[in-house]
Design brief:
By secondary structure, this protein is mostly helical. Helix content is 72%, strand content 6%. It is rod-shaped, with a radius of gyration of 65 Å.
Length: 469
């Protein structure tokens, strides 16, 4: 302790008190009782605080945002998983401290029906605050949420992906249950969020499927109706028509060649009218008559040599010769006429076939030209139907995937540590408070001794001044 001795010069009382060599020992001896009383009082107050202060207990659980993904099936999820980084972890911290999550935790544990938990805090200070605010708490749900958030402590563990979830209250078992339920509800909400998003997308895809199915049905009906109207089987019919037109062209060319051939045969039959005509030569009747004619001529030559030309038998045979010649002429004429009629009929039939083939070819060409426009329209309708079919199949495949994903989502975080009811309170911290109390008592005792010495110094100084005066 440092004392200014300049004012004490010429003052024996002050010098005997403050300037003696064993002043520190004298100070400690004479002020020990005072310092002990003050230090003991302070320490007693600290002990009284430790005895009367309400105990608070902290339960703490821990979750980790796991970058590894569990996939029951290989698919493209509707809601992608979290990619853990500093921003994502900070966002998850804010979600854990949200009022909505606190309300869910309270309802999960039935705290909204616990009158003791949702009761407003008592005490003079609390009453003054309520009076200043204009009344007490009237909404039990809000009171429950405020109390849950007031005891909540959420923090990231270092630079890891782990998040510590703690809750502090006067009941150690309840503190552990609330901390565990916060972690559990956080995990459940991740799965529910994914399931909800997947179910919503699945519902929208189902509605879209119904629309596309109706459009596809209408498109296919238009294709069938157009085919029935035009007689086209598909947009590939023009190729088949080209083949048909080629075949009809070949048939028409063959029919024309056959008609020309028959016309030539008719002309030849009309020119060949004598007994040397092919028809006469081919006639069986003419050949028979000519054979008979040869026999009669041989008999006539014999009789003419034997009896002379004026003999009745010779005259009779000559008459037979004229008759057989007339018969041959008639048969030759009939054969030639029959051949001409047959050639004429064949030429007429060939001409008819050529005309029919030409007509069929012209009709096919006209139909082909008319079908070109219909084919373009049919191709357009078929493309529309094919596009709708492909779109429907893609939506159907996605609908099946999202349908399987509902109820099979995995969370992006997992619980790595569950809270257990603590044995020692987190507040007040008895060892720390007691140690601080001892230090405070020591400083208070020393301070009281110093103050007493200062007061004594002032008193002696005044007495000396009065004596000198």
């Amino acid at each position: 302790m440092i004392v200014d001795l300049e004012p004490m010069e010429g003052s024996p009382a002050l010098q005997r008190r403050f300037a003696q060599p064993g002043y520190i020992f004298t100070f400690a001896t004479e002020r020990a009782r005072l310092m002990g009383i003050v230090a003991g009082g302070v320490l007693l107050l600290v002990l009284l605080y430790l005895l009367l202060a309400p105990r608070e207990y902290s339960g703490r659980s821990m979750v980790i945002i796991d970058p590894r993904k569990q996939e029951a099936i290989k698919s493209d999820p509707v809601l992608s998983g979290l990619e853990p980084d500093a921003t994502v972890v900070e966002t998850e911290l804010q979600m854990l401290q949200s009022r909505s999550l606190a309300e869910q935790v309270g309802k999960d544990l039935g705290l909204d029906r616990d009158a003791d938990f949702i009761a407003p805090p008592s005490g003079l200070l609390r009453g003054l605050k309520a009076l200043i605010r204009g009344g007490g708490q009237t909404d039990p749900g809000r009171g429950m949420t405020d109390k849950l958030l007031g005891g909540l402590d959420v923090a990231r563990v270092g630079t890891s992906y782990a998040i510590s979830i703690g809750w502090t209250g006067d009941d150690p078992g309840l503190a552990a249950r609330i901390a565990n339920q916060y972690a559990q509800r956080y995990i459940i909400n991740q799965v529910d969020t994914k399931d909800s998003a997947t179910a919503q997308v699945n519902s929208k895809i189902r509605d879209r499927l119904d629309e596309i199915r109706k459009q596809l049905t209408d498109a296919e009906a238009r294709v069938v109706a157009f085919r029935q109207k035009t007689g086209l089987i598909s947009a590939m019919d023009p190729a088949n028509s080209s083949v048909q037109i080629g075949a009809l062209g070949q048939q028409a060319a063959l029919a024309r060649a056959q008609a020309a051939e028959q016309a030539a045969l008719l002309a030849a039959a009309q020119r060949a009218n004598g007994p040397a005509s092919p028809a006469a030569q081919a006639s069986q009747a003419v050949q028979t008559l000519r054979a008979q004619q040869g026999t009669i001529e041989a008999r006539a030559a014999e009789l003419n040599t034997r009896y002379g030309p004026q003999h009745p038998l010779v005259q009779q045979v000559a008459e037979q010769q004229r008759d057989i010649a007339a018969m041959i002429d008639r048969e030759v004429a009939l054969a030639n006429r029959g051949a001409q009629d047959a050639a004429r009929a064949a030429a007429s039939a060939a001409g008819s076939r050529a005309g029919s083939s030409a007509s069929s070819l012209g009709t096919a060409r006209g139909s082909f030209a008319a079908n070109n426009v219909a084919t373009v329209r049919l191709a357009e309708l078929e493309r529309d139907a094919a596009a709708l079919t492909e779109l429907y199949q893609s939506y159907l495949s996605r609908y099946k995937e999202t349908g399987v994903e509902v109820g099979m989502q995995s969370p992006d975080a997992r619980i790595i540590s569950r809270a257990v009811p603590p044995f020692d309170p987190s507040s007040p911290n008895i060892p720390l408070t007691f140690a601080l109390g001892i230090l405070l008592a020591l400083f208070a005792g020393i301070g009281a001794g110093i103050i007493a010495e200062l007061l004594l110094f002032v008193k002696l100084k005044r007495n000396e001044t009065a004596f000198v005066g």
